[in-house]
Amino acid sequence: MSATAARSTGSRILLVIAIIVGLILLVSLGSWLWYRSHPATLVEAPPGVLAVLTRPIPDGPEAGLLRRGRYLATAGDCVSCHTRAGGLPFTGGRGLRTPFGVIYSPNLSGSADGIASWTPDQFFRAMHDGIDNDGNHLYPAFPYTHFTVVSRADSYAILAWLKTVPGDASTAPANRLPFPLDLRPVMLVWNALNFSPHGLAANHAQPASWNRGAYLVEGLGHCGACHSPKTTLGADDSSHAYQGGKLDNWLAPDLTGNKRTGLGSWSHQDIVDYLKYGRGARSNAAGPMAEVVTYSTSLMSDADLAAIAIYLETLTPSADMTASPPAAVAMRAGGAIFSDACTACHREGGVGSARLFPPLAGSAAVQQVDPTSVIRLILAGGRTGPTLARPSALSMPSFAWKLDDQQVADVATYARNSWGNHAPPVSADQVADLRRQLGLLTAMRR
Ligand code: HEC
Ligand code: HEC
Ligand code: HEC
Predict the structure, then answer these.
(1) What would the pLDDT profile of 92-116 be if each residue is shown by its tens digit?
(2) CA-CA distance, 92 to 72, in Å (whole number)?
(3) Do 264 and 357 lie in a common domain?
(4) Could you tell me if 232 and 177 lie in one domain?
(5) Which pLDDT does position 97 carry in this prediction?
(6) DSSP for 342-360, written as a single string
(7) 276 and 359 share a domain?
(8) Residue to probe by mutation, ligand 2, list 71, 242, 292, most atoms within 8 Å of CB
């Protein structure tokens, strides 16, 4: 008790000093947008990831604890960030790109260079407070701002299982961050402004399934890390929670009950199918969400997926957008391109083909206010995340070499404003900008 008190007095003094220093640093922190810089999608599943997550755990005195720990680690999708291309699962070294540099994930396996020596309390402090076993502040590229709600018992189970994961001597390369962001105490300031460790109080007005869904979505699932817009300091903007966020040139769509841009017109089963199979009647999961589905939600129990859906279904709808009507000339040009280039898969009328090619008519993904993912998929193509139940990865071809910026803009505008769809028109400048960001070739000149 008194040790804790002393520690908290000490850290309060540190905090005051840090806040003063921090005011100077704040300007440079201004665009430190952590989650807009989630790692680039793994091109191929590193060998062994699914084996580690699914192979039977033999019966024994600890089997129950280990099975629960692995399940919870799966729900947290720890493996996506903590595995580098070509590396053993959980041995870290994956670089998370941020606008200021790269942050590497540490080795979480049971080897000596992983978390073998960590105590349950140290591990809980990392999850709950964002502080490592040496007392250093971790960067919020590690989603402790969400994992903070994970219970002590669940955190212990995750650690117990991680200690059984075979590892190697991999250590994370040094982060590549400029001064002063390379100084971890800077995070003391960031935390003071954006974070306080907390749990999740039960809502007794809601059923147990809703409360379970809230725990998974707010905590281990860290869905808001991608799906919530960010403040200028890179924290989740809680006043617009789950209304859509931008990361790594993708747009993670609105998950609220909005009928046009959110999940308001999705059935309960539509949500469950999407999370379980990576595709359903309404949409397919590509990019960062493909990874979430392949390594995390597709391996979760039906009861937990139902709980997640039940919770999402109660999110207050975002405000309806107002969009100026598209220019007739763009709609005419876009319609012609759509017939030529898109109807082979998405069909006339944009109705798609259930569980293969997503419908574009009535699609929330197509009608997001921010068209980033729509433009990106047309330019770069996309791949639906494979799952054990639906193992073939469906793909959408890249049109970057075929359509110029104006043509991509026109077909996107057309898809966003046909068949009852309604969303702001897309400009050639927006397409040119994303084409540059993605380093894609310009269309061949006739
Ligand atoms: C979005 C990517 C991401 C996800 C998901 C993620 N981590 Fe991490 N984690 C990181 C990064 C990056 C760091 C390093 C942060 C730093 O250097 O400050 C880290 C650091 C850690 C650390 C500190 C380790 C050390 O040696 O200092 C622990 C413990 C940890 N993560 C556990 C987990 C667990 C358990 C899960 C799943 C429940 C998880 N992480 C999911 C990115 C992630
Ligand atoms: C790493 C970032 C990331 C995380 C974490 C994440 N998502 Fe996503 N999510 C995305 C992106 C990006 C898309 C858009 C994918 C696409 O366009 O194919 C998406 C799409 C979706 C969609 C489809 C929406 C639509 O209108 O088509 C649903 C539903 C969804 N996510 C639910 C979740 C849930 C539930 C969680 C937490 C368990 C979660 N996501 C966690 C990035 C993320
Ligand atoms: C060869 C088949 C094929 C063609 C041709 C094709 N697509 Fe797709 N499209 C797909 C597949 C498969 C997906 C799902 C990929 C993913 O997001 O997981 C998809 C996804 C999309 C999405 C995202 C929908 C969602 O729910 O996430 C949009 C928008 C889209 N396509 C637009 C177009 C446009 C516009 C064209 C024409 C320029 C086009 N597509 C041509 C196969 C195709």
Answers:
(1) 999 998 766 799 999 999 999 999 9
(2) 18
(3) no
(4) no
(5) 82
(6) THHHH-GGG--BTTTB---
(7) no
(8) 292
As given in the structure block, the two tokens for residue 186 are 């800077």
| Closest ligand, as measured to the CA of 390 | 3
Nearest of 91, 104, 111 to residue 46 by alpha carbon:
91
How much is the pLDDT for 445? 55
- CB under 6 Å to ligand 1: residues? 73, 76-78, 80-82, 96, 103, 105-106, 108, 123, 126, 132, 138-139, 141-143, 158, 220
The rounded distance, in Å, linking the Cα atoms of 292 and 368 is 20
Is residue 396 classed as helix, strand or coil in its secondary structure?
A: strand
* Smallest-distance ligand from the CA of 214: 2
Tell me: do 253 and 387 sit in the same domain.
no
List, for residues 189-226, the tens digit of each pLDDT value: 999 999 999 999 999 999 999 999 999 999 999 999 99
Using the mean position of ligand 2's atoms as its centre, give its distance from the Cα of residue 108 in Å.
25
Shared domain for 298 and 421, answered yes or no, is no
Say yes or no: CB of residue 414 within 6 Å of ligand 3: no
Residue span of the structural domain in which 45 resides: 2-194
Note if the pTM is more than 0.90.
yes
Ligand 3 midpoint to CA 361 (Å)? 12
Boundary (domain end) residue, out of 194, 219, 251:
194
- Say how far apart CA 157 and CA 5 lie, in whole Å: 28
For 77-196, list the strands marked E by DSSP. 95-98, 101-104
User: Which of 136, 160, 194 is where one domain is finished?
Assistant: 194
Residue 391 DSSP symbol: -
